[in-house]
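Figure caption, in words: inputs first, then the predicted bound structure.
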Amino acid sequence: MCLHALKKMKLGFIGAGKVAQAMAQGIINAGEITAKNIIASAPRSKIDNIFLEHIAKNGIKTTHSNSEVVKFADIVILAVKPNVMPIILPEIAPEVSKKNLILSFALGVTLRNIEKALPMHTRVARVMPNIAMHIGQGTSVYCLGNSVRPTDPKLIRNLMGAVGYVEELQDESLMDCVTALSGSGPAYCFMILESLVDGAVMMGMSRAQAMRLAANTLIGAAAMCLKGNYENGSMGSLKGDVCSPGGCTARSVFVLEKMGLRAALIAAVEASTLRSKEIYKESLGRPGYMMDSNDNQSYSSRSSLLDVGEEAENEFKAEAINADGENSLRTRNKEPALLPVYSVPDHFNRA
Ligand SMILES: NC(=O)c1ccc[n+]([C@@H]2O[C@H](COP(=O)([O-])OP(=O)(O)OC[C@H]3O[C@@H](n4cnc5c(N)ncnc54)[C@H](OP(=O)(O)O)[C@@H]3O)[C@@H](O)[C@H]2O)c1
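Bound structure (NAP present):
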């Protein structure tokens, strides 16, 4: 598998929100896949879909049909919120074939649960990217499903590598921690930067200049960590090099220690990891979510995927299959909505 193979691929996004837009922009900028070979879907809404309109500006094909994305694309990225996964997995299952590599960006939803909802031997991987893909500086981690082809890891590395740094994770249980660290991480960095800028502004510097200095300082410090031998995560000696005895940095570092910067960041990663696990559990508790035997829920049949509860009806506000028999997508802000009625394809009944 060479990079050239990626250029021939067609890429599809189910969901056209922030992360899909960041990835689409990054991959087009990288010149790896052209816009005409990319498609994105999102629900119809009153003013059509702002996200779709935005993504279409790049020349990307757009649709309100998730099935169309699966038919068009070799690589299908599930870029929807975790609570939408129970809707889209059964919706796309009848269209998924061996040509598709399914990459789920959804936090908390396990490979096992995705695989169970799709035809047997579907090529699935979980990927946790981050928003910096937009400028080709993302950080992505992927976990492989049971049925990937030997060439798929390289394909994923080429795809996600085109928009930043990528590495494989063997232990899927750490995916929640990845979500908390590199998935949520840009938000922590933005807060840190903003605070440093505020500090400099308070001391009389212009916001623009403070921003340039703070951001480049963060980039430089991070680059030093990556270049040096700091794989054990202990950067005390680097910090020591900046702190002269009796100097300014030693004083400010003491303030940061006293005010609990480290504890705050450690607790932030812990909180996000736990929330990621919670979201997964909440999804499992929802009527219609696919269950597996390890989930300790009272209903475990695959057909429970197709159960339609009142809660799901209200929450997901899915549209009925429209008059043309075409699957239409969930519509936001619409009055009483119905969930689509599906027949159970044979592959749903596998053990
Ligand atoms: N944002 C990040 O930095 C980030 C980083 C790593 C991973 N992720 C993961 O990526 C996923 C997407 O996150 P996001 O931030 O991009 O969310 P988002 O901005 O809310 O985008 C979600 C997209 O899914 C669409 N959608 C909703 N229901 C749908 C359906 N039935 N069929 C097709 N599309 C549907 C939404 O359309 P409407 O807006 O019209 O509802 C929207 O376009 C999440 O699972 C998240 O955990 C996000």
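The beta strands are 11-14, 38-41, 61-63, 75-78, 101-104, 123-128, 138-144, 164-168.
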